[in-house]
């Protein structure tokens, strides 16, 4: 019976490898523990007597909840009402964009502008998590809020050309909207046509 060198090396390697992995994981959890301890102390010092934090998990949950509430909505873009061109990100669509990434056909209607606008508002108000921000003669600004993360999409409708409603729909934050703006506008188009 001879000795097999690869078996001896692998037999020594595995315990050493497991030990190093254990040390790495242990160090990581120690870092997390001390960071949350420091973080909870800082929060209690900042907030003072207004909020009593009892455990580290309460601190982490509270921070996560506050970030969730405030971090996803973004701020109202200063270009609302100016029919700005879409940024170089796939989270915006526009009826006036020359780029296929952002291009979408406008809504069309027969009859008066007032009737078309009322019909469009009725459709929008029937959709979940919508807020009509601005309602002027030739312009609508609508906010659509996502269900879970509370992301806000700004949709602008322009009633400038007879028989045509131009629009721009864009996410406030992030890079991609996974096609949500386009799908929503196609659903509005379907409902607007009466289908």
Major beta-sheet overview: 6 strands, antiparallel
Q: Which ranges are low-confidence, i.e. pLDDT below 50, for 5 or more consecutive residues?
A: 49-53
Average pLDDT rating:
81
Question: What is the count of structural domains?
Answer: 2
Task: Give a written overview of the molecule.
- The protein has two domains: 7-71; 92-193, Kinase associated domain 1, KA1 (TATA-Binding Protein, 2-Layer Sandwich).
- Helices cover 45% and strands 19% of the residues.
- The protein is built from four helices and six strands, in the order ααββαββββα.
- The protein has helices at 5-47, 56-71, 113-126, 180-193; strands at residues 92-94, 107-108, 130-136, 139-145, 152-161, 164-171.
- The N and C termini lie far apart (82 Å).
